[in-house]
Amino acid sequence: MANKRKKISVIGGGFTGATTAFILGQKEIGDVVLVDIPQMENPTKGKALDMMEASPVQGFDAAITGTSDYADTAGSDVVVITAGIARKPGMSRDDLVNTNAGIMKSVTKEIVKHSPDCTIIVLTNPVDAMTYTVLKESGFPKQRVIGQSGILDTARFRTFVAMELNLSVKDVTGFVLGGHGDDMVPLVRYSYAGGIPLEKLISKERLDAIVERTRKGGGEIVNLLGNGSAYYAPAASLVEMVEAIVKDQRRVLPSIAYLEGEYGYNGICLGVPTILGGNGLEEIIELELTVEEKSALDQSAESVKAVMKVLA
Ligand SMILES: NC(=O)C1=CN([C@@H]2O[C@H](COP(=O)(O)OP(=O)(O)OC[C@H]3O[C@@H](n4cnc5c(N)ncnc54)[C@H](O)[C@@H]3O)[C@@H](O)[C@H]2O)C=CC1
Ligand SMILES: O=C([O-])CC(=O)C(=O)O
C-alpha cells in the first residue's frame, strides 16, 4: 500500500539541493525526489541513497530518491528549484541571469506537466527575476510560485546580532525586505532581542555595520568558499518554507511574491512579509514604512526591474 506522506521534489542535486533534501528527510517533512540532469543521474542517485542510509542511524522515516526522470516527481505537493549555476568570487548574482533563465524555463515545463497542483519554491539566482520567470512559464496562480531570500537574509542578520550581543539566536528576530541583492532592506525598526527593540541594545554605528554585513552576506561566503556559494543556511531556509506549506502552518515568513500594487509595485517579484500555509502564499502583509525605508525599498525594486529587463 502506498504511503500517505507528502511528496517534495527538489530540482538540482548540487550543494543547495542535496542539503535541502537531507534536512527535509531528517525532519520527516515528506518523501523527497532529488532531480538533476541525465549526466548527473548516478551521482544524484548516490547522494540520495547515502542520505537514506543515514536514516536508521538518525532515526527518520523518509524515502529519498535520486533521478533524472521527471516522471518520478509526478504528483509532488511542493517542488523546490535549485537547478542552475552559482556565482564565483568577483561575480554578482545578476551575472547568472541568462543561463539560469533558460534552465528555469525547461525545468518549469517538466514540473507543470507532472505536478500540475504543486506549489513551486524558487532558490536559483538571481532569485527575484527567476521567480518571475517560473511564475510566467508555469501559468500557475501567484499563490503557488514563490521565491526564497528573506528567511536567509534575516537569518544572517539574526546571527550577526546574536554574535554582537552574545545572546541566543532564538531570542533575536529580524526583518529583511526587498530584492536578494546588496541593496536589500534590513528593517532594524522591526527587529528585536527578547522583545526589546535592537536600537535600545546596539549603537547606531554597530547596527549600521551589521546591516551592511547582512547585505553582503552571500558574497562573504562566496569569497570564503572560493568555488561556489552558501548552502547550509539557504537549505535550512527552504525547508522552513516547505514545512510551513505542507503542514499548513500559516507562518509569518518573508518570501518573494508577485506584487500587484502592494508596496506600490506592479508586475514584479520582490521579497515581502507573507503568510505561508497550505495554499502556498496565503497573504502579503503590508507594513507602514518611513520615507527612508520606502526609498531604500524603491532602490532595491529598481535593481530587480533592471534584471527583469534583460529577460524581456
Ligand atoms: N536565493 C537564495 O537565497 C540562494 C540562491 N542560490 C542559488 O541556487 C542555485 C544553486 O546553487 P548550488 O546548489 O550551490 O549550485 P550547484 O552547482 O552545487 O548545483 C546546481 C545543480 O543544478 C544542476 N542543474 C543544472 N541544470 C539543470 C537542469 N536543467 N535540470 C536539473 N538540474 C540542473 C547541476 O547539475 C547542479 O547539480 C544557484 O543559482 C545559486 O546562486 C544559492 C544560495 C542561496
Ligand atoms: O550569494 C550567492 O550567490 C548565493 C546567495 O544568494 C546567498 O548566499 O545569499
Commentary on this structure:
The protein has 312 residues and is of the alpha/beta class. The protein folds into 2 domains: 7-148, 3-Layer(aba) Sandwich (Rossmann fold), CATH 3.40.50; 150-310, Alpha-Beta Complex (L-2-Hydroxyisocaproate Dehydrogenase, Chain A, domain 2). Helix content is 43%, strand content 20%. The protein has helices at 15-26, 41-58, 97-114, 127-138, 150-165, 204-215, 217-225, 232-246, 291-311; strands at residues 7-11, 31-35, 64-67, 78-81, 119-122, 145-147, 172-173, 176-177, 185-186, 192-193, 196-197, 251-260, 266-277, 280-284. The longest helix is centred in the C-terminal third of the chain and has 21 residues, at 291-311. The termini are far apart. Bound molecules: 1,4-dihydronicotinamide adenine dinucleotide and oxaloacetate ion. The site of oxaloacetate ion (OAA) has 13 residues, from helix 7.
What are the SSEs and their pairings?
Elements (H helix, E strand, L loop, with lengths): L6 E5 L3 H12 L4 E5 L5 H18 L5 E4 L10 E4 L15 H18 L4 E4 L4 H12 L6 E3 L2 H16 L6 E2 L2 E2 L7 E2 L5 E2 L2 E2 L6 H12 L1 H9 L6 H15 L4 E10 L5 E12 L2 E5 L6 H21 L1
Parallel strand pairs: 1-2, 1-4, 2-3, 4-5, 5-6
Antiparallel strand pairs: 7-10, 8-9, 10-11, 12-13, 13-14
Helix pairs in contact: 1-2, 1-8, 3-4, 4-9, 5-6, 5-8
This protein binds 1,4-dihydronicotinamide adenine dinucleotide and oxaloacetate ion.
Oxaloacetate ion binds next to helix 7.
